[in-house]
Amino acid sequence: MSRVHAPRKGLSHWALPYRCSVPTWLELTSDDARQQIYKLGKEDLTPSQIGVILRDSHRVAQVRFVTGTNVLRILKSEGLAPDLPEDLYHLTKKPVAVRNLSHNWKYESSTASALVAEI
Asked: Keyword Ribosomal protein on this protein (predicted)?
C-alpha cells in the first residue's frame, strides 16, 4: 500500500492473535476437525480450500488453534497430501490459463508473467 499525500510506501499488514487457544463458543472438537479434514482431503481438495470450508461452514478460524497442527501436516499423517506443493501447482497452472494470448496479443503484462512462470 502507498500513502496518498507522501512519496513513500506505508506499512499495511495484519497479525494473528497472540492467544492460540480454542474459542469458547466453538463446539467442534479436535477429533471432529480432523475427521472433517480427512473427509475433505479424500475429495482431493487443497489445504487452503479445506481451510476455507472449515472457516465458512464449521466456524473454525484457525485449524492450528483447534487441532494443534496445520492442515497439511494432518493430511500428510494420513497420506492424503498432494504430490506437488500448492503454490508450485498454481505457478505451473498459470501459463496454461493464459493461453488466450493468440486472441489478445497486445496483453503485455500477462505475456511477461507467462514467460516468467515457464522459466
From this structure: yes
Q: What are the CA-CA distances from residue 64 to residues 32, 45, 70, 90 (Å)?
A: 14, 18, 5, 24
Rounded Cα–Cα distance for residues 72 and 107 (Å): 36
pTM above 0.90, yes or no: no
CA dist 7 and 107 (Å) reads: 29
What DSSP assignment string belongs to 12-23?
A: ------S--S--
Residues 6+ apart with CB under 8 A from 29: 66
Backbone angles phi, psi at 80, to 5 degrees: -110, 10
pLDDT digit string (tens) for 48-64? 999 999 999 999 989 99
